[in-house]
Specification:
The protein has helices at about 5-15, 25-45, and strands spanning about 50, 55-60, 65, 70-75, 80, 85, 90, 95-100, 105, 110-115, 120, 125, 130, 145, 150, 155, 160, 165-170, 175, 180, 190, 195-200. By secondary structure, it is α/β, with parallel strands linked by helices. Strands 2-5-8-11-16-19-21-22 form an eight-stranded mixed beta sheet. A six-stranded parallel beta sheet has the order 1-4-7-10-15-18. Strands 3-6-9-12-17-20 form a six-stranded parallel beta sheet, with no helix packed on it.
Length: about 200
């Protein structure tokens, strides 16, 4: 006979890596899962400058760091998966998912992501950059930050990168492995290094 506690621990691990399953739990699992999430989220709120909307899911090993003046703000029903890294200032709208191993840093100017956007596994979004002048080592270069804005209903594919200063329009798609170094229009599909427009969702 299988150990019920071990089964529940494995189920929690499964949800942490695939948090979309949390929102489709059957009633017999929802009670313990919500109690578990309440404990995980209470611990996070007690330790970091973080604000969570209703019905969010936070993997226990997600690394979420907010500070006074650099908070992490999540809207309703956001999902943060296992081993994701978030450092404020970051603002997520409602129904945003950040999948396993994604790395988001708001720099000084911040990262803002609109409702219903999907951030796939391994994505790197950094709202800051080092100077490159030849007169000093990289470690001594000034750090600048312009901020990043990502619209609503956007899909950022696995292992894509987004550099500081970029604005991605509503309904856009960033292909797997793309590196976005300039603004992306609404509805555009971009891919490549550096990313170029390769399509339009309205024509696909």
């Amino acid at each position: 006979m299988r150990d019920p506690e071990a089964l529940r621990a494995q189920h929690q691990r499964r949800l942490a890596w695939m948090p979309w399953l949390y929102f489709a739990l059957k009633p017999r699992h929802r009670a313990w899962a919500e109690a578990w999430q309440a404990e995980v989220q209470a611990q996070l709120l007690a330790q970091e400058t973080v604000q969570l909307g209703m019905g969010c899911f936070i993997a226990p090993d997600a690394a979420i760091f907010g500070e006074p003046g650099r908070p992490v703000l999540l809207g309703d029903r956001c999902a943060i998966a296992a081993q994701a890294f978030l450092h404020g200032p970051i603002t997520l709208g409602h129904d945003v998912s950040v999948n396993a191993g994604a790395r988001l840093d708001g720099g000084r100017k911040g990262l803002v992501i609109g409702d219903a956007t999907r951030i796939a596994s391994g994505v790197a979004i950094y709202a800051f950059n080092h100077g490159l002048g030849p007169g000093r080592d990289i470690k001594d270069q000034p750090v600048r930050s312009q901020g990043i804005r990502i619209g609503r209903d956007v899909w950022i594919g696995a292992n894509a990168g987004i550099t500081d200063g970029v604005c991605i329009g509503d309904h856009a798609v960033v292909a797997m492995g793309a590196v976005v170094t300039r603004d992306v229009p609404d509805w555009a599909i971009v891919g490549g290094v550096p990313a170029q427009i390769i399509g339009d969702r309205r024509k696909s």
